[in-house]
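Hey all, sorry for the wall of text incoming. These are the two entities for the joint prediction.
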Amino acid sequence: MVEAKKKLIDGSGKRLDGRKWDDLRPISLQVGLMKNADGSAYIEWGKNKIMAAVYGPKEVHPKHQVLPDRALLRCRYHMAPFSVDERKNPAPSRREIEISKVIREALEPAVIVEDYPRTAIEVWVEVLQSDGGSRCAGITAASLALADAGINMRDMVVGCSCGIIEDTVVADLDDTEDKEGSGDMPVAIMPNLGQVTLLQVDGIYSREQFQKAFELAIEKGKQIYGMQRDALTMRFFGGEATSTQVEEVAE
Amino acid sequence: MPMIERKQVIPGDVIARGNHRYGAYVEKRGDEYIALRVGLAEVGRDGVKLNPLTGPYLPRAEDDVIGKVVDINGFGWVVDINSCFDGFLPASFVFGREFSPSTHDLSSKFRVGDMIGARIESFERSRDPQLSIRGEGYGKIESGEIVKISPTKVPRLIGRRGAMINLISEKTGCDVRVGQNGVVVVNGPPDGIVKTAKAVKMVEEEAHAADLMAKVEAYLGGSTSGGS
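and here's what came out:
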């Protein structure tokens, strides 16, 4: 079979879907859609459609897992059978188990688990339709769901991936670019604290490319953080002004 | 009255800098005061304060709560207080120091399923909150409709020196009892109960509105039932 490899970036610097090297796919965020969850968020990021729900803090079952001084943070990243072209077996795959773990580790530094001793906080990330960069989208939504649930957090967490296609560093890889490209780097950050909570890399990078991709991911992450703020403002303040004057309450 | 600024914050936001006192849901990092919840932050005479808009009920000593008895063991009652921690009401707090599991029948006082009004006696991180029914108004709640709201909206429902809750109960002719844990018990005429429940839900949904009092009054305005 002779098939020319698809050009991921054309001569004028446009990618397959028409984006420039540092453009994000369209993102929309909504908070608090699920009535039965303590907190929830929904994200559409390119073709990704992901629900995140938070339950808790609640009692820990089984009891032997109780931590006497802090909360147990549980995460489940799961892809719906219909989220990909070919039906996916709903049983958790090796990949999903790994992503559940890295999402938990990306969120844990932000959640003040010490404030909820002997309890469990459960985060469910359900991918309804999948595209590239779903772990970053999942983290972004999960952090919104945690904020919606009213769990004490040091900062929000926001994820964004960068990578290399055609030997060029680009932001926010989609599914094709992820598979055909030569490198993918998901990064999650706490924007106010300036800390990185997730950094995974595959592919081969030169020092300059690594530096560029890493900095680009952080820059784009901060941009998405702005969208997180808008989503929370929409949910809790009805999209009104950011500060109001009130009379001081005399106790 | 001096005007203070109320700022909408999300976790991680800097509320203020410098040297202030600060309350719950605020963390000090260097000279910055950081919000830990979504809410309205203000810097007033009490220092840096954050009123969260969402979150679970975490017990605090001295809180008045309304809960449901879910279990009885030899030493007291286990009470669901709408929190991740169950309240425990020791039998000796009810029967006195001479309580003994062999002579006293715990279910003669409260049975599983009963609603009780109680006070949080103590709560530490290492143990479940202890309840007490000593004092007036505590004990079994015999009648009423239960409305649950988010515990973070309770101060708004009570209002400044009880203004909001008094308004609702006056306009509907109902007796309204609010637990700090977000459980509300309403007693009164049936149509009054319906109105009260709706007004309470309205306060919960529009807790961020500046003119909430007026809105609630407008909603209840047409009511002629009761009044005190």
